[in-house]
Amino acid sequence: MRERQALFELIKLLELSEDINVLLERLIYHASELMNAQGGLIRLIKDGNLYITATYNIQTDKKVIPLDEGICGMVIKEGKVRVFNKQELEGIELDIPAYSAICIPLKIEEAGGEKVIGTILIYNKLDSEEGLGEFTEEDISLGQLFYKAIGVVWVDNLYTKKPITEQDINFLKGFADQVAAAIENAWIFEKVEKAEKELEMLFNSITDLLYYTDEYYTIKKVNKAFLDKTGKEEKDVINKKCFQILHKTEYPPKNCPHKKAIENKKPAIAEIEENFLEGVYLLSSSPIFDKNGNLIGTINLGRDITELRNLREKIASMEKMAALGELAAKVAHEIRNPLLAIGGFAKRLDKSLQDENLKEYVRVIVDETKRLERILNETLSFVKPYYMGKKPFIINELINDVVNFTDSVLKDKNNELIVEIQEDCPVQGNYDRLKEVLLNIITNANEATQNGKIYLRLKKIGRLPESENLNEEYFVIEIEDTGCGISEENMKKLFTPFFTTKTNGTGLGLAISKRIIEDHGGIISVESELNKGTIFKIYLPVYQKRRSE
Predict the structure, then answer these.
(1) Which of 233, 253, 301, 373 has the fewest CB atoms below 10 angstroms from its CB?
(2) pLDDT tens-digit profile of 56-91?
(3) Structural domain tally of the chain?
């Protein structure tokens, strides 16, 4: 009855154990107890050696032995159970004291046949009446029950000298298959667990946004980059709709690649501008199928391509400017002289004509000729290379000059200019060109505002996040109005050459301003909201005086 209870407990342990190390420790303990032996150990093959992986009631310094050493080496080489009684152990160097022992190879089934992967040892059987005994052929039959396990078994009877009985064999037959299946399952579980950890590590090491969704847009798995970018914890995104997390909407975008992948059952790619994530992302979705070929969702990869798109747009703009420069040079050559002739003769006619109606027509010709000349000059100014002579000066002086220059123009529309200067900011630049920028932006603000306020602010801000020079300090000039604002559609084309919403505008003012600021190593940006106003921000590096100057 005791043996059956022990067998039942062992089987329960085998069923519950998933950790192979814990399982092996339990196996050697219960095997020794059932055999009424003093102790035992299990060695597994790794990297060409035998490593002790589980022991019971054994102390040995030989944690690792060569694969061909000692009685374990003999058993592994022969691939069968061997009994080593007292006479056979003479002259053999042992890592533990033993009167006699049985060594059992542990095997697993492979495609090419059986493979020995270790040994089990159970030694020194205890019997208070007879002491120590020797193993018999019957014991070999018992040892063969362990063939499908994972190691070598050593059994001896140092104390009892009593042979293993038929009853011992019957007990061991009862759990031999359980031992083999449990060890193999635990080994497989360990490999699967290791593979899962490696996959998880690989999944989280990807710097792009990676997430898995089912066919109904529900997020099932995300990587670390996804959580870092969205600023959320995993529990806050799992089982949520992907468009709710990424786009902050209640429905997917029109060009959603997940939708296309689900519909066509093929990978899909889309370039999406994300307002919430503040950038342009290339989203790719690949369909996932179960073993029966049923579509179960998509794996999605999102890459931030904001810098790539900006570079692409900059290259396109440069190519456009090159073509525009060539065209402008040809246009200027072809129309400048005829235009001067038209304007000159029109002025002469204005002086000689007496009929007021005819004189009015001539004045229209003169005015329109002047407008064409201005457009021509602005075009040439934009596309023609020019020398940017720079000198150090205090930007505050330039601001005061601009304020005085625009005072009368602002009064015409009943606008108030409020100047806020925190401190003096030296700059290395071209005074006239920077003045042109400020006048252009303030003029635009004045035209967009009626009976309102225009703010002109100057302050230092330290280092720009985009700047690679950690020692470079910047200041910002802000020009804010309370006017009509700019639509989102027009914001995208604001600095595009020849784009204008004005009746008499050329569409080159802001394009030229942007070029001037960039030539000074600065940045110009704009924020606007319809019917509330617009704010332009001009970032310029603070001039640092050298010791030699």
Answers:
(1) 233
(2) 888 888 889 888 888 888 888 888 888 787 777 787
(3) 4
Taking the C-alpha atoms of residue 84 and residue 103, their distance in angstroms, rounded to an integer, is 8
- 102 pairs with which residues across the strands? 83, 122
3-state secondary structure of 477: strand
Which of 383, 405, 437 is the C-terminal boundary of a domain?
Answer: 383
Could you tell me which residues are beta bridge partners of residue 540?
475
Tell me if 197 is assigned to some domain: no
* Cβ-contact 476, 303 below 8 angstroms: no
Contact 125/133 with Cβ under 8 angstroms?
A: yes
Contacts of 292 (CB under 8 A, 6+ apart): none
The predicted-structure confidence for 84-94, as pLDDT tens digits, reads as follows 877 777 877 77
First to last CA, the chain: 102
Pair 58, 99 in one domain: yes
The residue segments making up the domain with residue 295 are: 206-304
Whether the model clears a pTM of 0.70, i.e. scores above it, the answer is: no
Query: For residues 393, 395, 401 and 405, what is the CA-based torsion angle, rounded to 10 degrees?
Result: 130
Strands 101-110 and 82-84: antiparallel
Of 118, 127, 212, the residue nearest 167 (C-alpha): 127
- For 105-167, the DSSP string reads EEEEEETTEEEEEEEEEEEEE--TTT-EE---HHHHHHHGGGTTSSBEEE---TTEEPPPPHH
